[in-house]
Every structure is written in C-alpha cells, then in structure tokens.
Amino acid sequence: MKKPKRICIYPKDIQRITGRSERYGRNIIKEIKMKLNKAPHQFVTIEEFANYAGLEISTIIPYIED
Description:
Blueprint (H helix, E strand, L loop, with lengths): L10 H8 L3 H14 L10 H8 L3 H8 L2
Helix pairs in contact: 1-2
C-alpha cells in the first residue's frame, strides 16, 4: 500500500470516491466531525473517513493521490 501524500480528506476527494456532489462531501465531513466531537476548525483524516464509510484505506488512497 502506498503512503498518501496527505492525511486529511476534503470534499473533492469524497466526490471522487463516491461519485456524488461536492456538497455531499461537505455534508459527510460535517457528519464525521459531529460524530467524533471535533471542532469546526479541525480536519477529518483519511482513516476517520474510511472507518465512517466502511471502506479500506487502501481502496481510498488511489482517489486522493493526484
């Protein structure tokens, strides 16, 4: 498994992974932050998104590497 270039996930990444809109990605990030009791300024990691979505990190990494 390749190491990702970054540890944070952004709405555009979620859009590429799911095929849904960027707004959907923003809503997912907001849900994850609420579930994990994160402050609005804190980032969501790739690992946190993978756990939330029920996906393996190795399947996500190709979508976030440019």
